[in-house]
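Why do we care about 3D structure at all? Because function follows from shape, and shape follows, mostly, from sequence. That is the central idea of this module. The next example makes it concrete: a single protein chain, its amino acid sequence, and then its structure expressed as tokens.
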Amino acid sequence: MTNHVTTRCTVRGPAEAVAAFRALMVVAVDPPRRPALASPVPGLLARLRGLFRGCEPGASPPVEPPLLAMDFNRILPMPASLTAYPEQTAWLLEHWGTQRNAEAYTETAWHRDGTAVLEFCIATAWSFPAPVFTALHGRFPTLSFDIVGFEEAWQFAVAGIYGPGETGAVEIEPTADLYARVYGVPPEPGEEA
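And the structure:
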């Protein structure tokens, strides 16, 4: 079973550079498709959805925002010449610091006005993707990447800043305060390892 590391990142800097970072790293992904039902139920369901959404049956449903993902290949592309496991896994660990691409991406804030702030969370498998953030700092030297991350089994946490005059994130002891900074809620009683 995969233990995930959830990383909360706040990116600060000139609005153009933050927008360029987001344009490079954040991609829209297609949601999984459900097979169409072969019965009159879809028409009835469409009418009910329309009523609950406050629009007339047959009207276009509201447009939902696309699902987003952070793609590490956009900053550190994996060579296509690599064969499957274990060669790919070794490359991923060395170059991304984790065995897979980011498995979840959620934006929590996005402000633009001269200087910009983009806050997001990603989840990665087993480890923090330090090489990815080092490469991002190299590509966007005017940006500051404020990092706090937490391994879900309370094995380790990470904190630090990639940015001008900063050295990056380091592994630290997990605490209830760090848990709350990453997840936005305190740990459940007895959850601390």
